[in-house]
Amino acid sequence: MRKLIIAANWKMNVGPKETTDFINSFTALLGRKCEHTDIVLAPPFVSLPAASEKLSEHPLVALAAQNVSQHDSGAYTGEISVLMLKELFTHYVIIGHSERRSLYGETDEIINAKLLKARQANIKPIFCIGETLEERESGRLESVLRTQIEGGLKDLTAKDMTDTVIAYEPVWAIGTGVVATAEQAQETHAFVRSVVKDLYGEDIANKVRIQYGGSVKPGNAAELMGQPDIDGALVGGAALDPQSFYDIISNSAPE
Ligand code: PEP
Predict the structure, then answer these.
(1) Number of Cβ atoms within 10 Å of the Cβ of 217
(2) Catalytic residue list contains 18
(3) 39-60 pLDDT, tens digit each
(4) Is 150 known to be catalytic?
(5) Mutation pick for ligand 1 pocket among 9, 14, 94, 171 (CB with most ligand atoms within 8 Å)
(6) Domains plus CATH for the chain?
């Protein structure tokens, strides 16, 4: 049985002060219904120190960065290294989000270098993949996802694969209010798992957690999380409010 993992991707929202306020309100809500879920918050880089300090009192909630450099140090203005993230007790990092791919030109090669670098530092990647509407409607869904998976995971060992979370996020569902139906999401998650099986074998494919992302809300979380191959969610807009993020987690809890 795979443990659910539900992560908040705050994107370029929630500064350090608001982060402290959010964590105070959010952790006050946490209770029995959250025990069976790994909960992760991904604030912007500047809010990581405030989040790290507050979360040291709350072992149930882990910290993620939204991006990381593929380099160790040096002349890379504006970049943040894995070792810097380690200093702030950041256990996860989102890599290859569709906004990084489309707005900042991140290729499968760059994403792969970042994944390998994160694993060298023992940080768990949340590796994002997903197709555009045009790719889905022109029948290229599976080839696009297979290329992203094979390219992103190149040279990742089997052990590192079990510490990697995949986030399937159809680009057409991110921030649009259009959510994939539970059937569409389940079918695609099953395909993603089959590609992991081709690469790493059945045992590892059965262990890897695959999150769904794209307009997840308190009202649709239970149906999505009830699908056999959906093991959690990566949540943008609906994770900006502590009550709404908590409701997604509690509505997803296994009965
Ligand atoms: C995301 O950015 O990863 C995301 C899924 O956003 P939203 O939930 O707002 O669609």
Answers:
(1) 17
(2) no
(3) 999 999 999 999 999 999 888 8
(4) no
(5) 9
(6) 4-251 (3.20.20.70)
